[in-house]
Amino acid sequence: MFVVLKGPRRGRPLSADGVDEILTGARRRAGLERGTCHELRHTCLTRLREAGMALEAVQAQAGHRSIESTRVYLHLTNDWLADEYLRASAAIDADQAAVAEMIAMQDQAVTR
Question: What pLDDT band is residue 2 in, cutting at 50, 70 and 90?
Answer without folding.
Answer: low
